[in-house]
Structure formats: C-alpha cells, structure tokens
C-alpha cells in the first residue's frame, strides 16, 4: 500500500466515530484503534489513563421577550431549565473573570463570542459550575436592551469517565519522540484538527519500525490537548528523563487542500536547524513560521528539549463542523510523512549533544 492510501485509511478510521471530545465513547474508540496499530507495528504500548468528565448536550434554548434567539451551550455547562437573571459578558475568559463569576454566583451566564456570526463556546471549563451559553455579537446587542429576565435552557448531562495517552516505544535508550493529539472539540469531526496528525503519526510508526535506526523511537498519541491539557500533565508525571530525548516532532493540523504546511523549531542547535532547512528545500510547499506554543510540543520545549512543530497556514476550519475528511488531501498528508521521515533519517546517527542548543547559541536562530 502506498503512503497516500495508508495515511488516508488511518484518517478515515480515526474520524469515523465523529467528534472525539475527552471522555466520550468516540474518544475511547480512537484510543483503541491507535493502540491496535502500535501493537501491529511491534511497539511496546503503554496507556497513561486519567480521570475526566464525559459531557453530553441534548438541547440549548435562549428566549428573550418571548422571542427565541440563537445560542450555543458552553462546553461542560451544567443543566438549567428556568427563567434566569443572566449576566452578559464579552471579554475572553481569564482567571480574574472566572473568580469574579464564582464570587457573584449568577444563576446563569451568557457569553458573547466577539467573532461576527460566531457562536463557538467561549467558556470550556468543567470546574465552573454555573450554567452558561454563548451568543453572537448581534444577539448580544439585543440582550443588552432586554429589561425582563430571559429564559436559558441547557439540557446536558455529565458522567465520570477517563481519557488516555497511548504511547508506543521501540527501545528504551535515547530517543526521538513523534507525537500528535487525537481528541477534538465537540461538534466537529476533527479531520484537520487533528485526525490528520494522528494519521501521519500512525503511518510513520508503520514505516519507521521497519527500519534499523540507530536511535530509539517513541510515538505518543496525546489526549485532552483541546481543553485542559491533562494528557500532557499525565505524560510529565510519568516521565523523568526528558534529558534523554534527542528531539520532538509534533504534528497538529495538516493536509488541508487549500492550506500550506508550516514548520517551526525551538530549543534547537544550529546543526539541527540546518538539517531541517536543507530537508525542507525538497518540499517547496512547506514554509517556515515563528515558534508557537499552543500544542503538545510546548510540554517538551519548556523543558529544553529540541522541538519541531508541523502544522498549516491559510485555513480556518479547526473546531468547526466544516472540519471533515472531505477537506483533507491524501497527497498533502503523504508530503508530511515523507518530510518527517527524511528528517529522522538525516539526524538518526547524531549524538544527543548534536541536537541540543549550546550555551553559546543562546536564543533560537
């Protein structure tokens, strides 16, 4: 089977159950598939399990002055089904806002997404036990002029559940780590974010385990990247030997037909950057971008591990219903597989110190 067919098959299998938010049955099914592929590759598989909720939403309603308005329950919102004196706020969430809300303890919260016509949840915090919904700016303006209590209905249910990182290792010595997260937000198939990254990771596991590499390999499918980062926390809790990691390559959001692939690198030696640069020349569709922290590679870079992230620019479908398998190019996924394979090959025989930034090199170049 060629690389394009192989990686597409993995993408379809991962995305088949639909959205994969932490704690859900679809999330567990994806974990089982990843574990099956790792075992088939002959990897030693470890599962790092942690507790989390499973949140399900049945219905959301918002009524003001007898008129129904469009609203979306915020992820993990508790249920409510009574007329409420609601507080409306529009800034993005931060710790101060959450603390003030908990102190004032309103019956419900209406958040306004500042993006025009957007109703994507603003609050995604399972520790905040106040019912809440998000509305668009237009609806928010209407609500500012409402003098009577509005009716907020959230029919939701939350159970205790679990999530897991799935880790496959070949060898136990100094190693290169390849990773991608497999969870999604709610109400999205998550093909681009990040079924694509997982499909590339699984294909790399199949290809690289067939080679006699000088360096050991670790393949990590992270969970809960989208919400609280519990997967990263659990990995750190179980891992004390970050000093033995040569480098990390994280794949997050690749393969879109209309996007361009990107690469960035941090905490690296100039020698490693030179290898990435020379390898990239074979792939003119991949462009350099500045370092960015919003994914699993930051768990490693913050600890001084040379970290590379492969992603995309030019697309904005993540976390939305538009993020489907049909928008992913098999050839572009194959491009990422070959690019990362070439980088692993080019750096395989290098010692640990070759990857690490020296004291003389200072900040990333």
Quick structural gist:
This protein has 365 residues and is an alpha/beta fold. It contains ten helices and 14 strands.
Which terms would index this structure?
14 strands, single chain, 10-stranded mixed β-sheet, 4-stranded mixed β-sheet, alpha/beta, 28% strand, Glucose Oxidase, domain 1, 2 domains, Aminopeptidase
Descriptive overview:
The chain is of the alpha/beta class. The protein has two domains: 3-54 and 162-355, 3-Layer(aba) Sandwich (Aminopeptidase), CATH 3.40.630; 66-147, Glucose Oxidase, domain 1, CATH 3.50.30. Helices cover 31% and strands 28% of the residues. The protein is built from ten helices and 14 strands. It has helices spanning 3-15, 25-40, 95-104, 137-144, 191-208, 230-238, 270-280, 297-301, 330-347, 352-355; strands at 44-64, 67-69, 72-73, 80-84, 86-89, 108-112, 132-135, 150-170, 175-181, 216-222, 245-251, 260-266, 286-288, 307-313. Strands 1, 2, 4, 8, 9, 10, 11, 12, 13 and 14 form a ten-stranded mixed sheet that branches. Strand 1 (44-64) and strand 2 form a beta hairpin. Helix 1 (3-15) packs across helix 5 (191-208), helix 2 (25-40) packs parallel to helix 5 and helix 5 crosses helix 9. The longest helix has 18 residues, at 191-208. The protein is elongated.
């Amino acid at each position: 089977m060629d690389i394009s067919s192989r990686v597409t098959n993995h993408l379809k299998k991962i995305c088949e159950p639909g959205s994969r938010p932490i704690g859900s049955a679809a999330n567990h099914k994806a974990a089982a598939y990843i574990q099956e592929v790792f075992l088939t590759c002959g990897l030693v598989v470890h599962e790092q399990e942690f507790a989390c909720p499973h949140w399900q939403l049945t219905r959301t309603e918002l009524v003001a002055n007898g008129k129904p308005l469009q609203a979306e329950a915020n992820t993990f919102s508790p249920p409510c089904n009574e007329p409420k004196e609601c507080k409306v706020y529009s800034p993005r969430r931060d710790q101060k806002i959450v603390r003030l809300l908990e102190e004032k303890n309103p019956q419900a919260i209406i958040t306004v997404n500042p993006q025009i016509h957007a109703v994507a949840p603003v609050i995604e915090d399972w520790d905040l036990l106040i019912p809440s919904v998000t509305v668009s700016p237009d609806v928010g303006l209407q609500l500012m002029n409402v003098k009577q209590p509005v009716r907020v209905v959230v029919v939701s249910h939350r159970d205790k559940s679990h999530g897991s990182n799935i880790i496959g290792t070949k060898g136990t010595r100094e190693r290169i780590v390849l990773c991608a997260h497999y969870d999604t937000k709610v109400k999205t198939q998550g093909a681009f974010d990040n079924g694509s990254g997982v499909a590339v990771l699984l294909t790399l596991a199949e290809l690289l385990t067939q080679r006699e590499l000088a360096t050991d390999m670790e393949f990590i499918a992270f969970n809960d990247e989208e919400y609280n980062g519990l997967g990263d926390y659990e990995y750190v809790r179980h891992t004390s030997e970050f000093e033995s990691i040569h480098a990390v390559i994280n794949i997050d959001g690749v393969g879109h037909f209309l996007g361009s692939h990107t690469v960035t690198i941090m905490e690296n030696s100039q020698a490693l950057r030179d290898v990435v640069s020379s390898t990239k020349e074979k792939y003119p569709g991949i462009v350099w971008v500045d370092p960015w922290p919003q994914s699993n590679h930051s768990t490693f870079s913050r600890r001084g591990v040379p970290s590379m992230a492969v992603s995309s620019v030019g697309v904005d479908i993540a976390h939305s219903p538009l993020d489907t398998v049909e928008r992913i190019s098999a050839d572009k996924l194959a491009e990422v597989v070959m690019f990362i394979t070439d980088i692993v090959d080019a750096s395989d025989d290098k010692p640990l110190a070759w990857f690490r930034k020296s004291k003389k090199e200072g900040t990333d170049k």
